[in-house]
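Structure tokens please, single chain.
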Amino acid sequence: MSIIAQQRSQVESLSEAMLNALPNPVILIGQEGKVVDANIAAESFFEASLQHLKRMSFKDLVPFGSPLLELIEQVKASGSAVNEYKVDLSTPRIGVDRQVDIHVAPLPERPGHIMVMLQGRSIADKMDRQLTHRSAARSVTALAAMLAHEIKNPLSGIRGAAQLLEQAAPPEDRTLTRLICDEADRIVTLVDRMEVFGDERPVARGAVNIHSVLDHVRRLAQSGFARNIKFIEDYDPSLPPVLANQDQLIQVFLNLVKNAAEAVVDVEEPEISLTTAFRPGVRLSVPGKAARVSLPLEFCVKDNGPGVPEDLLPNLFDPFVTTKPTGSGLGLALVAKIVGDHGGIIECESQPRKTVFRVLLPMFHPTKNQTEEAESGTASQRDGAK
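Here you go.
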């Protein structure tokens, strides 16, 4: 092999290595619309090997009538690159809710060939949802403080007056006075629940074993409201501790499991899955911290119910949004507040027979004092064993 050929081969190998190192899917499309080449990220995105992709036309990989196909034709006609944002590429093959930013460019070295690069919007959308959930929580906090002050005090006067009237009222009118008392009590109960949102006191947080939390929640659920539901546990045993308050995490996942149990009540074979995994790469800004915080710990509650109505999904964590006829719509808003207070995010993906609530939280990093105490305790144990 000549020196020039060797250099060319080395350049091609390096180019291929660089292409496969990219985290974004990149596909090269030939003159007849066939897939000519693709990197590893593209194989993962379309859930097909390179050999399989090369046997397919690109239009068979994307939804029918996708704007991406028009962009490719536009680039062929103009010879210049174009960008498009928030394009939906959802298909049964690659799943639902797959929105991407697209960069389409011609390849001058190979006339008629088009390069397509996709960038998933999941991270950006998670950041947007995080800010939305926190904004909703702040709105509920202000509303709770106002309700507690402006409603509970006059309600006690109304209830007291109704009790006095009941003593002198004839039997046929006592039903009405009792109704006034019951409704006043019901409003007070609702306000008491909302006062939880107004509690801004810092909570003690430390290293929490999420598997202990999920096991406790599962046992509570199976002894009560989820007695006849099959639970599936898929845990990563090597997961590090999460930085959290254990009682509040129990409240979060008990609420999510209760929602899942209510969603599968009419399903023939109801199932709830609890999963944990380590997902590096998500870094978000947290109020009060200058540095961006990594959220590598992923905890999911999945059910095989009918799914969340599409029109409710964008506002699912807002207060008073509920699919239950008798629900107050405060449960998921409280969950979003607690997760946000922990510096994490929560999101929901839903389709028939598969609804997933995904919680992303930071891992526990021991301080210098805690590390020294742990090392001191280990040394003491070794000394005692001698």
